[in-house]
């Protein structure tokens, strides 16, 4: 029986959520030795720090206590979870939500056999440039709301559909009103305006555009891929960003083998995203470095591509995150539960590993420890599932299971 863990001295407005059949805490002290291993070596059998018949106390915007429901402290308010499961809010550490337009036709053509190509990004660039600020804002909030109703309480989002100084800075300014996890992706593709002179575009991305964008962003990203930016260009772009105080993350090894993953580890990027085509040396680098491997199965689903091998990464000891990559071209889903179901069905993950990767894993990919876990002091971001266990997220694919969502201690859906 758990005696409960608490932070000292509750001060704010307190709420008890009780009668929780199964609580996912992701507390590393509750049965999982290391977040870097899938071996569950402490005998806990799960990375999730599960507590059965549990309760949680929220104090203001923070978690104050978790433990056995019979031992919960007195609080101002009380919520009966009705014998259902509670998990941390999803941390979607990779999305592209500042865009306009639609690529239904491109998707339709793909589903009739055409291959995905990064060139489709240009369609969204044209539509995004033509859109008003209000239209971009409306689009962003619509997708955020959609994600929140499915349990996402933190999201990262990127620029990358502007590719001019003004349009990139505008995208980041709009995004920064909604999240602190904002990523400058001027290096998504070479701008159509510089198609004949990629070097001039890299100079712009690392120069004037970076100066205009850095104040709105925490991260810098680059699409390191044939048809986008090569290893040397990616290194130059990320190094320039770092010199301006931005932290690197990379779109790496999505469509083909390449230098992206090893560059990510070399530069201590927080995350290498996609990781679909990996050599043994790439897997070793991820297993031995701090860089998280963020897998984005919505992209493989929507491009009919081969799945990233999560099992291989986990067995090697890499830290794996799962995110949506929500964007109008390669992965137009805002649903983390959908990604969990795909990862379990097709990428060799257990339901427990997939839920960990979509919560604590996403937090690790953003180098955060205040989210993605329900431990005293963490941000009170929780999802009440309309199910007795988190396993239902994979067991019941396509079913909307988020019954209520709390963000920073406030019930925002339910
Ligand atoms: O992460 N790979 C590059 N960027 C996006 C796709 C963007 C698009 O096709 O519009 C991705 O999959
Ligand atoms: Fe992406």
UniProtKB/TrEMBL annotation:
Cofactor: Zn(2+); Fe(3+)
Positions contributing to N-formimidoyl-L-glutamate binding: 161, 327, 329
Pathway: Amino-acid degradation; L-histidine degradation into L-glutamate; N-formimidoyl-L-glutamate from L-histidine: step 3/3
CDD domains: Imidazolone-5PH (cd01296)
Hydrolase in keyword set: yes
Binding residues for 4-imidazolone-5-propanoate: 103, 161, 188, 254, 330
EC identifiers of the protein: 3.5.2.7
Cell compartments where the protein resides: Cytoplasm
Single GO MF annotation: iron ion binding
Recorded GO CC terms: cytoplasm
SUPFAM superfamilies recorded: Composite domain of metallo-dependent hydrolases, Metallo-dependent hydrolases
Binding of Zn(2+), residues: 94, 96, 251, 325
Family named by the database record: Belongs to the metallo-dependent hydrolases superfamily. HutI family.
Main function: Catalyzes the hydrolytic cleavage of the carbon-nitrogen bond in imidazolone-5-propanoate to yield N-formimidoyl-L-glutamate. It is the third step in the universal histidine degradation pathway.
Superkingdom of the organism of origin: Bacteria
InterPro entries, per the entry: Amidohydro-rel, HutI, Metal-dep_hydrolase_composite, Metal_Hydrolase
GO biological process, one term: L-histidine catabolic process to glutamate and formamide
Amidohydrolase-related domain: residues covered: 272-390
Protein's name in the database: Imidazolonepropionase
Residues that bind Fe(3+): 94, 96, 251, 325
Enzyme type, top EC level: hydrolase
Cofactor binding mode and count: Binds 1 zinc or iron ion per subunit.
Reactions performed catalytically: 4-imidazolone-5-propanoate + H2O = N-formimidoyl-L-glutamate
UniProtKB keywords: Cytoplasm, Histidine metabolism, Hydrolase, Iron, Metal-binding, Zinc
């Amino acid at each position: 029986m758990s005696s409960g863990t608490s932070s000292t001295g509750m001060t704010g407005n307190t709420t008890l959520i009780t009668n929780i059949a199964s609580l996912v805490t992701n507390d590393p002290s509750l049965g999982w030795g290391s977040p870097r291993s899938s071996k569950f070596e402490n005998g806990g059998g799960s990375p999730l720090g599960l507590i059965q018949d549990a309760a949680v106390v929220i104090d203001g915007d923070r978690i104050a206590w978790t433990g056995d429901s019979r031992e919960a402290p007195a609080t101002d308010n009380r919520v009966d979870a009705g014998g259902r499961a509670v998990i941390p809010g999803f941390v979607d550490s990779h999305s592209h939500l500042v865009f306009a337009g639609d690529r239904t036709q491109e998707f339709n053509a793909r589903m009739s056999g055409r291959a995905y190509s990064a060139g489709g990004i240009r369609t969204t660039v044209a539509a995004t440039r033509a859109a008003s600020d209000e239209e971009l804002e409306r689009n962003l909030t619509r997708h955020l709301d959609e994600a929140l109703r499915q349990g996402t309480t933190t999201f990262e989002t990127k620029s990358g559909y502007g590719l001019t100084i003004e349009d990139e800075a505008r995208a980041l300014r709009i995004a920064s009103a909604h999240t602190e996890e904002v990523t400058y992706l001027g290096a998504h593709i070479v701008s159509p305006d510089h198609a004949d002179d990629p070097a001039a575009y890299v100079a712009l991305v690392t120069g004037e555009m970076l100066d205009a964008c850095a104040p709105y962003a925490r991260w810098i990203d680059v699409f390191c891929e044939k048809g986008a930016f090569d290893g040397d260009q990616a290194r130059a772009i990320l190094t320039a960003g770092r010199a301006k105080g931005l932290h690197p993350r990379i779109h790496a090894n999505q469509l083909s083998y390449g230098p992206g993953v090893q560059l990510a580890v070399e530069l201590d990027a927080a995350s290498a995203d996609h990781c679909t085509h990996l050599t043994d040396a790439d897997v070793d680098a991820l297993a031995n470095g701090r860089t998280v491997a963020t897998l984005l199965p919505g992209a493989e689903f929507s491009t009919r591509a081969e799945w990233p091998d999560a099992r291989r990464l986990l067995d090697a000891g890499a830290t794996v995150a799962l995110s949506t990559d929500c964007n109008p071209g390669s992965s137009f889903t805002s649903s983390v539960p959908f990604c969990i179901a795909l990862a379990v069905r097709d990428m060799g993950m257990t339901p427990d590993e997939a839920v960990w990767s979509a919560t604590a894993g996403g937090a690790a990919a953003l180098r955060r420890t205040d989210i993605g876990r329900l431990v005293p002091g963490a941000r009170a971001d929780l999802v009440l599932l309309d199910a007795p266990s988190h396993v239902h997220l994979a067991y019941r694919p396509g079913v909307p299971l988020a019954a209520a969502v709390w963000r920073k201690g406030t019930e925002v859906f339910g």
